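CATEGORY: protein folding

GOAL: derive structure tokens
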Amino acid sequence: QVQLVESGGGLVQAGGSLNLSCVVSGVTFSTSNMNWYRQAPGKEREFVAAITWNEITYYEDSVKGRFAIARDNAKNTFYLEMNSLQQQDTATYYCNTEVRGSGDYWGKGTLVTVSS
């Protein structure tokens, strides 16, 4: 059974930092690509960042230079380091992976609120 569990969300002032974690089970983590998405109130879920099994990273334009995605295969965990947070980063953040032949799997999300 594939499970993804996010943690690390919270309330932070604009300009601050947060680190999100996602613990993954039920997949061969070291050969899986991992993603972060977010959904702001009243908006559709959007891509934030991805890290491939061989650690190639991708970012949505608005977070480039501020966010960093990383993984620790020994812990079956991947991370999203978020710096210089802005109010528009307020959203529920979800971790995601796709299992070939099985589909997409999502965590339940962790809420990030950036205050002015």
Observations:
- The two ends are 40 Å apart (CA to CA).
- The CA atoms of residues 97 and 105 lie 5 Å apart.
